[in-house]
Write a structure and sequence with these properties.
444 residues; five-stranded antiparallel beta sheet; 25% strand
Length: 444
């Protein structure tokens, strides 16, 4: 275990921590890198003696200040790796600091896979699940919905394991715990034998996607699309299980579209758009026609995930699925009727209802609408206008993405909000794991 302290009387004045997007900076009083749950518990008890609050940070892929602290910052870099694979129960137990990309590769080597996942895999497993990271799915839900048990250290240093059978009220809340209930040290996921997915990517006009949206959702296990603002162009993606054979993307072709076009050329286009905003609509028309139709078949993580090297800010709202087409038409009309210049596509995904207290899909069939802007681009005008549309439809903001909602709004948006805060009051009455963000979204 290693601990780095800023020095006596220097709480909040240590080395700065920045998130991936660079929009959040905090100065913890000290940092610790525990190598076990026992070392972590000792650090939490020591922080309590010193009057310091505690937060854990993964890879910093949240766009909110959910991990920011002026107290003790826990880095889970040494809490990594698979603890055990139970092939009878079809579960894997993994240390909380393990990056999703390492878990996916390790599972594939064992002939196993998660059922569903998001479109990037840089996050740690605890960071991804604690903020509600999700992909798209008609029947399969977020990463957190695949949790079968988890272990966390609570504010008094107790190591608590919860599942549907053991401390079920904690389990119902802690799968998406926002870092408010304790520090997660291990997660047990449901897994299944590795399978093949066939991805069919196809350009489609905006009006057609919306006219066929319910059908596209119903007929595909995983459907998503991107709309390019200032155009009528979309790119759709349908992922469905396949009997094979595997037919991966050609190495050169995959590199050209996923790296050269989607990262290299897109980075240059975004930089040009930031420097010369009036050029953005023309750039959008060109870039939205650059990606062609393609079909390929591969193991899940090679289909679900893509490299994302262009840095951006993101807002995402979860709406009742029946509000999808109306909200998207309102969003398109807003962009077209405003002076805004938007260089990033709008991403649309779906999820089934789940039973996690603060899941954005808790209790309802869900559509996700995500908007992005290139890092360094003024975002307030666009995000404020988008948020106005989303909240008018009862939207729930992603916990790790930019939003301005507070506890008053969120307590009405989540029927089980009080259930979560009651568990928090019991496990962390002194708000050892609190920070300004949690005070805003959960109350005090």
């Amino acid at each position: 275990m290693s601990t780095r302290t800023a020095g006596p009387g220097s709480a909040g004045t240590g080395s700065p921590w920045r998130n991936w997007a660079g929009n959040v900076v905090s100065r913890p009083a000290r940092e610790a890198t525990p190598a076990s749950a026992e070392e972590l518990a000792a650090e939490i008890r020591r922080a309590a003696e010193d009057g310091l609050r505690v937060k854990t940070v993964g890879t910093g892929h949240s766009f909110t200040s959910i991990a920011a602290t002026d107290g003790l910052l826990i880095r889970p870099d040494l809490l990594t790796g698979i603890r055990r694979i139970d092939r009878e129960a079809m579960t894997v137990t993994v240390e909380s600091g393990t990056p999703l990309k390492r878990l996916n590769v390790a599972l594939a080597r064992e002939g196993l896979s998660l059922t569903n996942m998001g479109d990037i895999m840089e996050q740690t497993v605890a960071g991804a699940t604690s903020t509600g990271t999700h992909g798209t799915g008609r029947d399969s839900a977020s990463i957190a919905a695949q949790i079968r048990a988890l272990e966390l250290v609570t504010a008094d240093g107790t190591l608590l394991t919860c599942s549907e059978r053991e401390h079920p009220e904690v389990f119902a809340a802690a799968r998406i715990g926002l870092g408010a209930l304790g520090v997660v040290t291990a997660i047990t996921f449901a897994v299944e034998p590795v399978f093949l997915l066939t991805a069919r990517e196809e350009p489609m006009r905006f009006d057609r996607v919306l006219a066929d949206f319910d059908e596209l959702h119903a007929e595909n296990e995983h459907f998503e699309f991107y709309w390019f603002p200032h155009t009528d162009n979309c790119n759709t993606k349908r992922n469905n299980r396949s009997a094979g054979p595997a037919a991966p993307l050609p190495r050169l072709g995959g590199w050209f579209e996923d790296e050269f076009l989607s990262n290299g050329v897109f980075q240059a286009a975004c930089s040009l758009g930031r420097a010369v905003p009036p050029a953005i609509p023309a750039i959008a028309r060109i870039s939205s026609r650059a990606l062609s139709a393609r079909t390929y078949t591969d193991i899940p993580y090679k289909v679900f995930t893509s490299p994302r090297r262009v840095r951006f800010l993101e807002m995402e709202y979860a709406l009742p699925r029946e509000a999808a087409t109306t909200a998207l038409r309102e969003l398109k009309a807003m962009v077209e009727g405003s002076p805004l210049k938007v260089s990033f596509p709008v991403e649309v995904r779906t999820a089934p209802a789940d039973d996690i207290a603060l899941s954005t899909a808790s209790g309802r069939e869900t559509v996700y609408i995500a908007v992005h802007l290139y890092k360094g681009t003024p975002h307030r005008g666009y995000f404020t206008a988008v948020e106005r549309i989303m909240t008018a439809h009862g939207g729930r903001p992603h916990w790790g993405k930019v939003h301005t909602r507070d506890a008053a709004y969120l307590s009405a948006a989540y029927p089980r909000f009080a259930e979560f805060t009651a568990v928090r009051d019991r496990l962390d009455p002194d708000r050892r794991f609190g920070n300004d963000y949690l005070r805003r979204v959960l109350g005090d």
